[in-house]
Amino acid sequence: SFGNFDAAIALLGGAIKDDPKIGEAWWRLANIYWLSGNLAKAKEVAAEGKRTAGYFDEQGGRAISQVLAATSSTPTLQ
């Protein structure tokens, strides 16, 4: 929320490294990349998270779907 994308990416990357089955870390990391303007990386992370985590709650599933369907580097809230 403060625009410190590097810190958020490091924190979430560490969480994924510790336990790649936690879906929330994947969708949040994908969203951070998207918010930072890196849609290609956001899609890469979302796809890998979808393959690896195996489970997302409703919010996480919606977030992953939005990233994968995105066509703009600037997200809009839905």
Architecture overview:
The chain is an all-alpha fold. The protein has four helices and no strands.
> End-to-end distance, in Å?
18 Å
Alpha carbon gyration radius: 11 Å
Q: Kindly report the oligomeric state of this protein.
A: single chain
Compute the number of helices: 4
Order of helices and strands: HHHH
**Category from helices, strands and their pairing:** mainly alpha
Strand content: under 5%
In round numbers, the mean pLDDT is 92
Largest sheet: none
- Helical content class: 55-70%
Which runs of at least 5 residues are low in confidence (pLDDT < 50)? none
Total strand segments? 0
Net shape = globular
Labels describing this entry:
78 residues; mainly alpha; 0% strand; globular
